[in-house]
Protein backbone atom coordinates (compact mmCIF):
# COMPACT_ATOMS: atom_id res chain seq x y z
CA UNK A 1 0.00 0.00 0.00
CA UNK A 2 1.44 3.43 -0.94
CA UNK A 3 2.63 5.68 1.86
CA UNK A 4 0.25 8.40 2.97
CA UNK A 5 1.43 11.69 1.46
CA UNK A 6 2.54 14.61 3.57
CA UNK A 7 -0.42 16.87 4.36
CA UNK A 8 -0.77 20.59 4.90
CA UNK A 9 -4.05 21.46 6.64
CA UNK A 10 -5.13 25.09 6.56
CA UNK A 11 -7.96 26.20 8.83
CA UNK A 12 -10.12 28.46 6.68
CA UNK A 13 -12.74 29.04 9.36
CA UNK A 14 -13.11 27.97 13.00
CA UNK A 15 -16.34 29.66 14.02
CA UNK A 16 -19.94 28.71 14.44
CA UNK A 17 -22.80 29.38 12.00
CA UNK A 18 -23.11 33.08 12.90
CA UNK A 19 -19.38 33.78 12.66
CA UNK A 20 -17.43 35.96 15.07
CA UNK A 21 -17.82 38.86 15.54
CA UNK A 22 -21.53 38.12 15.50
CA UNK A 23 -23.75 40.80 13.99
CA UNK A 24 -24.93 43.26 16.63
CA UNK A 25 -22.94 41.71 19.48
CA UNK A 26 -20.66 43.75 21.76
CA UNK A 27 -19.42 40.94 24.02
CA UNK A 28 -15.76 40.64 24.99
CA UNK A 29 -14.99 38.05 22.31
CA UNK A 30 -16.83 39.82 19.48
CA UNK A 31 -14.96 43.05 20.29
CA UNK A 32 -11.65 41.33 21.09
CA UNK A 33 -8.39 42.67 19.71
CA UNK A 34 -6.99 39.13 19.46
CA UNK A 35 -7.21 38.14 15.76
CA UNK A 36 -7.70 34.52 16.80
CA UNK A 37 -11.12 35.51 18.15
CA UNK A 38 -12.25 36.50 14.64
CA UNK A 39 -13.79 33.28 13.33
CA UNK A 40 -15.36 32.70 9.95
CA UNK A 41 -17.64 29.76 9.24
CA UNK A 42 -15.99 26.31 9.65
CA UNK A 43 -13.90 24.80 6.88
CA UNK A 44 -10.44 23.39 6.20
CA UNK A 45 -8.25 22.99 3.13
CA UNK A 46 -6.09 19.87 2.72
CA UNK A 47 -3.03 20.20 0.51
CA UNK A 48 -0.92 17.26 -0.71
CA UNK A 49 0.96 16.24 -3.85
CA UNK A 50 0.01 19.49 -5.56
CA UNK A 51 -3.69 18.92 -4.87
CA UNK A 52 -6.14 20.99 -2.84
CA UNK A 53 -9.18 19.35 -1.24
CA UNK A 54 -11.74 21.50 0.54
CA UNK A 55 -14.09 20.40 3.31
CA UNK A 56 -17.31 22.43 3.02
CA UNK A 57 -18.00 25.61 1.06
CA UNK A 58 -19.02 28.15 3.70
CA UNK A 59 -20.69 31.52 3.05
CA UNK A 60 -17.21 32.97 3.67
CA UNK A 61 -15.47 30.78 1.07
CA UNK A 62 -14.49 33.58 -1.32
CA UNK A 63 -12.78 35.53 1.48
CA UNK A 64 -11.19 32.35 2.81
CA UNK A 65 -9.82 31.35 -0.59
CA UNK A 66 -8.31 34.79 -1.13
CA UNK A 67 -6.72 34.82 2.32
CA UNK A 68 -5.24 31.35 1.77
CA UNK A 69 -4.04 32.36 -1.72
CA UNK A 70 -5.73 29.32 -3.23
CA UNK A 71 -4.74 28.81 -6.86
CA UNK A 72 -6.50 25.52 -7.53
CA UNK A 73 -9.28 23.35 -6.16
CA UNK A 74 -9.40 19.64 -6.96
CA UNK A 75 -12.35 18.36 -4.91
CA UNK A 76 -14.87 19.32 -2.23
CA UNK A 77 -16.02 17.06 0.61
CA UNK A 78 -19.30 18.02 2.27
CA UNK A 79 -20.02 17.14 5.89
CA UNK A 80 -23.73 18.00 5.64
CA UNK A 81 -26.25 20.35 4.13
CA UNK A 82 -26.59 23.21 6.64
CA UNK A 83 -26.16 26.73 5.27
CA UNK A 84 -22.89 27.49 7.06
CA UNK A 85 -21.30 24.51 5.28
CA UNK A 86 -22.90 24.82 1.86
CA UNK A 87 -23.75 28.35 0.76
CA UNK A 88 -20.37 29.26 -0.75
CA UNK A 89 -20.59 26.61 -3.47
CA UNK A 90 -21.16 29.18 -6.22
CA UNK A 91 -17.72 30.64 -5.51
CA UNK A 92 -15.92 27.61 -6.94
CA UNK A 93 -16.60 29.10 -10.40
CA UNK A 94 -13.19 30.81 -10.76
CA UNK A 95 -11.50 27.44 -10.28
CA UNK A 96 -13.66 25.92 -13.02
CA UNK A 97 -12.50 28.74 -15.28
CA UNK A 98 -8.83 28.49 -14.33
CA UNK A 99 -8.72 24.69 -14.51
CA UNK A 100 -11.05 24.41 -17.52
CA UNK A 101 -13.06 21.56 -16.05
CA UNK A 102 -15.61 20.36 -13.55
CA UNK A 103 -14.75 19.81 -9.88
CA UNK A 104 -15.84 16.59 -8.15
CA UNK A 105 -17.88 17.08 -4.99
CA UNK A 106 -18.56 14.31 -2.48
CA UNK A 107 -21.85 14.45 -0.62
CA UNK A 108 -24.34 12.17 1.12
CA UNK A 109 -27.74 11.81 -0.64
CA UNK A 110 -29.46 14.31 1.67
CA UNK A 111 -26.72 16.88 1.09
CA UNK A 112 -26.88 16.29 -2.66
CA UNK A 113 -30.64 16.91 -2.56
CA UNK A 114 -30.05 20.19 -0.70
CA UNK A 115 -27.47 21.27 -3.27
CA UNK A 116 -29.92 20.58 -6.09
CA UNK A 117 -32.64 22.59 -4.31
CA UNK A 118 -30.38 25.50 -3.42
CA UNK A 119 -28.48 25.76 -6.71
CA UNK A 120 -30.99 24.56 -9.34
CA UNK A 121 -29.33 26.59 -12.10
CA UNK A 122 -26.26 24.35 -11.86
CA UNK A 123 -28.33 21.41 -13.08
CA UNK A 124 -30.39 22.95 -15.87
CA UNK A 125 -30.29 20.82 -19.05
CA UNK A 126 -29.69 23.82 -21.31
CA UNK A 127 -26.49 25.67 -20.41
CA UNK A 128 -27.34 29.16 -19.07
CA UNK A 129 -25.69 32.18 -20.61
CA UNK A 130 -24.08 33.13 -17.32
CA UNK A 131 -21.15 31.15 -15.93
CA UNK A 132 -22.29 28.61 -13.33
CA UNK A 133 -20.36 26.15 -11.15
CA UNK A 134 -19.37 22.99 -12.97
CA UNK A 135 -19.44 20.04 -10.60
CA UNK A 136 -19.50 16.25 -10.70
CA UNK A 137 -21.46 14.80 -7.78
CA UNK A 138 -20.10 11.62 -6.22
CA UNK A 139 -22.28 10.04 -3.56
CA UNK A 140 -20.89 9.24 -0.14
CA UNK A 141 -22.08 5.90 1.20
CA UNK A 142 -19.79 5.57 4.19
CA UNK A 143 -17.13 3.51 2.41
CA UNK A 144 -13.50 4.69 2.13
CA UNK A 145 -12.40 5.99 -1.25
CA UNK A 146 -9.21 7.09 -2.98
CA UNK A 147 -8.83 10.79 -3.66
CA UNK A 148 -5.72 11.50 -5.75
CA UNK A 149 -3.67 8.96 -3.83
CA UNK A 150 -5.08 9.76 -0.38
CA UNK A 151 -7.51 7.35 1.29
CA UNK A 152 -10.50 9.24 2.69
CA UNK A 153 -12.87 7.57 5.13
CA UNK A 154 -16.26 9.14 5.91
CA UNK A 155 -16.90 9.02 9.67
CA UNK A 156 -20.56 9.04 10.71
CA UNK A 157 -21.39 11.28 13.69
CA UNK A 158 -24.64 12.57 15.15
CA UNK A 159 -25.55 16.25 14.85
CA UNK A 160 -28.55 16.27 17.17
CA UNK A 161 -30.99 13.85 15.54
CA UNK A 162 -29.24 13.92 12.16
CA UNK A 163 -26.37 11.77 10.96
CA UNK A 164 -23.64 13.80 9.27
CA UNK A 165 -20.10 13.01 8.19
CA UNK A 166 -16.66 13.84 9.40
CA UNK A 167 -13.63 12.60 7.47
CA UNK A 168 -10.44 10.73 8.21
CA UNK A 169 -7.61 11.22 5.73
CA UNK A 170 -4.34 9.50 6.50
CA UNK A 171 -3.32 10.24 10.08
CA UNK A 172 -5.67 13.22 10.39
CA UNK A 173 -9.42 13.55 10.88
CA UNK A 174 -11.86 16.44 10.82
CA UNK A 175 -15.13 16.30 12.75
CA UNK A 176 -17.35 19.34 13.01
CA UNK A 177 -21.01 19.76 14.00
CA UNK A 178 -21.40 16.73 16.23
CA UNK A 179 -23.14 16.07 19.52
CA UNK A 180 -22.23 12.38 19.65
CA UNK A 181 -19.54 10.14 18.15
CA UNK A 182 -20.93 6.58 17.94
CA UNK A 183 -18.75 3.72 19.19
CA UNK A 184 -18.17 2.33 15.71
CA UNK A 185 -17.02 5.75 14.53
CA UNK A 186 -14.67 6.15 17.48
CA UNK A 187 -12.95 2.97 16.31
CA UNK A 188 -12.17 4.75 13.02
CA UNK A 189 -10.43 7.57 14.88
CA UNK A 190 -7.65 5.68 16.64
CA UNK A 191 -3.97 6.13 15.85
CA UNK A 192 -4.27 9.73 14.68
CA UNK A 193 -1.64 12.41 14.59
CA UNK A 194 -4.19 15.25 14.24
CA UNK A 195 -7.86 15.31 15.26
CA UNK A 196 -10.28 18.22 14.84
CA UNK A 197 -13.37 18.21 17.08
CA UNK A 198 -16.45 20.37 17.54
CA UNK A 199 -16.27 22.37 20.81
CA UNK A 200 -19.02 24.95 20.57
CA UNK A 201 -19.04 26.34 24.11
CA UNK A 202 -18.98 25.33 27.80
CA UNK A 203 -22.75 25.05 28.28
CA UNK A 204 -24.62 22.06 26.80
CA UNK A 205 -26.19 22.37 23.35
CA UNK A 206 -28.61 19.90 21.72
CA UNK A 207 -26.60 19.52 18.49
CA UNK A 208 -23.01 20.35 19.42
CA UNK A 209 -20.26 19.30 21.82
CA UNK A 210 -19.07 21.19 24.89
CA UNK A 211 -15.41 21.90 25.55
CA UNK A 212 -15.35 19.42 28.45
CA UNK A 213 -16.93 16.69 26.34
CA UNK A 214 -14.47 17.34 23.53
CA UNK A 215 -11.59 16.97 26.01
CA UNK A 216 -13.07 13.60 27.05
CA UNK A 217 -13.12 12.51 23.41
CA UNK A 218 -9.44 13.44 23.10
CA UNK A 219 -8.58 11.46 26.23
CA UNK A 220 -10.34 8.39 24.86
CA UNK A 221 -9.17 8.58 21.24
CA UNK A 222 -5.61 9.66 22.16
CA UNK A 223 -4.46 11.58 19.07
CA UNK A 224 -1.02 13.13 19.27
CA UNK A 225 -2.53 16.57 18.62
CA UNK A 226 -6.11 17.82 18.89
CA UNK A 227 -7.66 21.06 17.70
CA UNK A 228 -11.11 22.35 18.65
CA UNK A 229 -13.23 24.15 16.08
CA UNK A 230 -16.78 25.39 15.38
CA UNK A 231 -16.48 27.68 18.41
CA UNK A 232 -18.98 30.31 19.48
CA UNK A 233 -18.38 33.75 20.97
CA UNK A 234 -18.68 32.16 24.42
CA UNK A 235 -15.04 31.06 24.07
CA UNK A 236 -12.14 33.48 24.29
CA UNK A 237 -9.18 31.96 22.47
CA UNK A 238 -6.50 32.92 24.98
CA UNK A 239 -8.52 32.23 28.13
CA UNK A 240 -9.94 28.91 26.91
CA UNK A 241 -6.68 27.56 25.51
CA UNK A 242 -4.80 28.41 28.71
CA UNK A 243 -6.98 25.89 30.57
CA UNK A 244 -6.39 23.03 28.13
CA UNK A 245 -3.68 20.36 28.15
CA UNK A 246 -0.69 21.22 25.95
CA UNK A 247 -1.63 18.70 23.23
CA UNK A 248 -5.07 20.28 22.82
CA UNK A 249 -5.23 23.67 21.13
CA UNK A 250 -7.97 25.84 19.72
CA UNK A 251 -7.99 26.15 15.95
CA UNK A 252 -8.00 29.65 14.52
CA UNK A 253 -8.53 31.05 11.06
CA UNK A 254 -5.34 30.82 9.02
CA UNK A 255 -3.71 28.15 11.21
CA UNK A 256 -1.52 25.75 9.21
CA UNK A 257 -0.86 22.23 10.45
CA UNK A 258 1.58 19.78 8.87
CA UNK A 259 1.33 15.99 8.97
CA UNK A 260 4.45 14.11 7.91
CA UNK A 261 4.45 11.60 5.05
CA UNK A 262 3.46 8.16 6.24
CA UNK A 263 2.37 9.47 9.67
Strand and helix map with partners:
Layout: E1 7-13, E2 43-48, E3 51-55, H1 61-67, E4 75-77, H2 83-86, H3 93-99, E5 103-107, H4 109-118, E6 135-139, E7 145-147, E8 150-159, E9 162-169, E10 172-174, H5 183-186, E11 194-198, H6 211-221, E12 225-229, H7 237-242, E13 248-250, E14 256-259
Parallel strand pairs: 3-4, 4-5, 5-6, 10-11, 11-12, 12-13
Antiparallel strand pairs: 1-2, 1-14, 2-3, 7-8, 8-9, 9-10
Summarize the entry for a quick read.
Helices cover 19% and strands 27% of the residues.
How would you describe this protein?
The chain is of the alpha/beta class. It has one domain (7-259): Ribonuclease Z/Hydroxyacylglutathione hydrolase-like (Metallo-beta-lactamase, Chain A), CATH 3.60.15. Helices cover 19% and strands 27% of the residues. Strands 6-5-4-3-2-1-14 form a seven-stranded mixed sheet. A seven-stranded mixed sheet has the order 7-8-9-10-11-12-13. A hairpin with a 2-residue loop joins strand 7 and strand 8 (150-159). The longest helix is centred in the C-terminal third of the chain and has 11 residues, at 211-221. It is globular and about 55 Å long. The model has no long low-confidence stretch (mean pLDDT 96).
Amino acid sequence: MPSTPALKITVLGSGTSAGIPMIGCKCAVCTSGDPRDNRQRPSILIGYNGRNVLIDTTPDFRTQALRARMERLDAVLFTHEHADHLMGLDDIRPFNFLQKGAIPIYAAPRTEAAIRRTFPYVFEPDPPKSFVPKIEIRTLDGRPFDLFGLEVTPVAVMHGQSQVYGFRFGAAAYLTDHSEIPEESQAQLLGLDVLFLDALRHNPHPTHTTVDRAVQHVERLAPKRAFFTHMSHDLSHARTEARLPSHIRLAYDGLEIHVAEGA
